Amino acid sequence: MESRALRRLKRKLTVEVLWLYVIKALLGSEPMKAYDIVKVLKGVMGLKVSTITVYSVVYRMVGEGLIEPVKVGGETLYKLSEKGKSEFEKAIKFLESVTQMLRS
Question: How many structural domains compose the chain?
Answer without folding.
Answer: 1
